[in-house]
Automatic annotation (TrEMBL):
Coiled coil: none annotated. PROSITE patterns: OMPA_2, PROKAR_LIPOPROTEIN. Residues 165-282 form the OmpA-like domain. This is Flagellar motor protein MotB. It comes from the Bacteria. Keywords: Cell projection, Cilium, Flagellum, Membrane, Signal. InterPro entries: OMP_bac, OmpA-like, OmpA-like_sf. It is found in: Membrane.
Length: 282
């Protein structure tokens, strides 16, 4: 009986969530605002659908409402940081990021680069949401990278990119994830690399360090070679994008000192990664 009751309660919660979120209907709403609002309308609908597919009803509802508001031409700007409970240590970067975004939007970014500006705002809100959730590092990295990439486009269009700020803290490390037993860069991983390139131009670090890992499934020597292949792939992508080889400091950790501690033999996604850290030389 208890199991049946739980099933009924779960089903009721699911139906209630569905009733409050007509994402396809919101997506089809007529746009009443600017081109920027229209782009936001669709971007937020995409985020709503992604959260809905993960059964995150609260954030799906939030992004559905943001999509609806944008379609009506009544968007209120990027989410306030105080509205999210962020992990310790992440506040400084997002505060600078939001300030840069607002400066670009207020300088005419909504009008001069409407699509990129909308992508920057929605990616920033995605970044905040994923930071608060703090369970999918790859999604955090992807939203963050998409934000920096879009913001750089807006700033270039405005030609008002902020001057290099020596006092600005370097961004938190970015993680390029790989598939099991693979050194191939996926589309998701490439979006993170694009974000690294954009951040390199913005923050002008003294050095970029790359540490390559592998999970603990399989032979340790093989995993060292796999980790090397992964970092080689990332280095090639960064060099192809114009970052000099002299800026890149590489180390191979393999299955030693992995980010996610596991027993030997465990295939852990979080350890199939190259971690990229910006160094300011201080």
């Amino acid at each position: 009986m208890k199991a049946k009751l739980l099933a009924v309660v779960s089903a009721a919660a699911f139906l209630s969530a569905c009733a409050n979120m007509n994402i396809p209907g919101v997506r089809e709403m007529a746009d009443e605002g600017s081109a920027f609002d229209a782009a936001l309308h669709q971007n937020y609908a995409d985020l709503a659908q992604a959260e809905y597919d993960e059964a995150d009803w609260s954030d799906a509802r939030y992004f559905t409402n943001r999509s609806k508001t944008a379609a009506m031409g009544m968007d209120g700007g990027p989410q306030e940081i105080a509205e999210r409970s962020l992990p310790e240590g992440s506040g400084a970067e997002v505060e600078v990021a939001r300030a840069d975004l607002m400066a670009a939007l207020d300088a005419g970014g909504r009008e001069k680069a409407s699509s990129a500006a909308a992508r920057a705002q929605s990616s920033f809100d995605c970044w905040l949401q994923e930071l608060e959730e703090n369970i999918q590092q790859e999604d955090i990295d992807n939203c963050r990278a998409a934000f920096y990439q879009a913001l750089a486009i807006v700033q270039a269009e405005l030609d008002t990119a902020p001057a290099p700020m020596a006092a600005m803290p370097m961004p938190v490390p970015m993680n390029v994830y790989f598939g099991f037993d693979s050194a191939e860069i996926s589309d998701k991983a490439m979006s993170v690399i694009d974000g690294i390139v954009e951040a390199y131009g913005k923050y002008e670090p003294e050095m970029i360090s790359l540490v390559a890992y592998a999970d603990r499934a399989g032979d340790a020597k093989y995993n060292d070679m796999l980790a090397k292949s992964r970092v080689d792939a990332v280095v090639k992508a960064l060099r192809d994008a114009g970052i000099p080889a002299s800026m890149l400091a590489i180390s191979i950790s393999g299955e030693s000192d992995v980010p996610v501690s596991t027993a030997d033999g465990v295939a852990e996604q979080g350890n199939r990664v190259v971690t990229v850290t910006f160094e300011d030389g201080m």
